[in-house]
Every structure is written in structure tokens, then in C-alpha cells.
Amino acid sequence: MITRRAFTAALSxxxxxxxxxxxxxxxxxxxxAQGAADVAKPQSLPDLALCPANATVTFTEYxxxxxxxxxxxxxxxxxxxxSEFIDSGKIRYVFREFPLDIKAAAGSMLARCIAKDxxxxxxAVIDMLFKQQNxxxxxxxxxxxxxxxxxxxxxxxxxxxxxxxxxxxDKIAADQKFANEVLKxxxxxxxxxxxxxxxxxxSFEEFDKRIKSLLKS
Length: 217
Hints:
Blueprint: H1 4-10, H2 36-40, E1 48-50, E2 57-63, H3 68-86, E3 91-97, H4 102-115, H5 119-131, H6 133-139, H7 141-151, H8 156-163, H9 166-181, E4 190-193, E5 196-199, H10 204-216
Parallel strand pairs: 2-3
Antiparallel strand pairs: 1-3, 2-4, 4-5
């Protein structure tokens, strides 16, 4: 898991450039069986979701903003799901952070700081982070995150304060730990449709079939 000491040291005044050398999260192998109730219940951080909570089908995604496969889902598959099911209010979509390294955690923290409780703003930032993934993950992490924060109305100091927010990091880490230990999430992207897990890259056609089956039942 992301350790507080490692993260705090990496986000010192020297900036984020040291983050590239961190290893992926250590995975926990002894996991408990998940259930729909466990998936449905937010833990440390409130859920930011699209569509009402009383939708009959809930589509939950666990993703790391550093994950190439997650970015591909966001670009190629999610727009179809949104157009077909979310915009019409047929399903509820929930995005939950599962950072696989320190940079992904930093991106998730920034998105939370920018959005606060505004789901629309949160998903706009997440989409931007995925689209600019090559810039802020591979090349210019500090500059790109600061620029994204500035575009959203945050000052340079506000961005730095956000990325040093230990309480926020603790909550992200706690939720990641719960997802791993209880829900058996150990890779990204991982999806749950009414509590049923689907791992890895999945076509729209497969999601479409499963969602329509649940909507009919």
C-alpha cells in the first residue's frame, strides 16, 4: 500500500519529479468474498457518481489514473455506456480511486480537491487527467498537475497544499485497502455491475449484454 512516509517525502518542496521511481502497490492476497452490499457502501470518501442512487443497476469502476487500460476504457468504451445507459438514467455510474503508484494517488487527490462535492467537475478533471496522461505521468508531473489545478481555479499554493493533504491521502489509501482486502480488487480497471466483478479490458458489447440483462430482470 502507499505509505504516508513515502508519499510525504515524495511531495516535499522538491516537487513531484521523484515519484517516477516508486514501485506499484503491494497486493494483499488474503481477501474476503465480496458482496453487492460491500460494493455499494462507500467507505472513507463519499462516492462521486452520475445518475440517481436509486437506479436499479449500479456500475462501479475501480481505476488508477496512471493505468493505460483505464485510459483506454475512458476514451473508447465509457462514452458508449454513458450515451446508452447513464444519460438516460438507466444506471448509476460510480468511479472509485485505486491508485497503483504515488503519481496516480497525486492525480486522484488533485481531482478531489478541485471537485469537492461536485460530481460533474470531478469527472471532468478525471477525463482531463486520462487524456493528458502522457504529459503528467511520464514527462512533466509537477507542471501539468499545477496547470490543471490552475485551469480549475486553484492557485499554485492550493495545489501544493492539496498534494500534501495527509488526511485526504489516508482516506484514499484506506478505500484502496478495503477494495483490495474485501472486494478482491487487485488490478485496474476492475468493474462491478450490481456487485458482480468484471476484471480488465472489456468490450462495450459485453457490458451492454450484462447491463441489459439486469435491467430486464
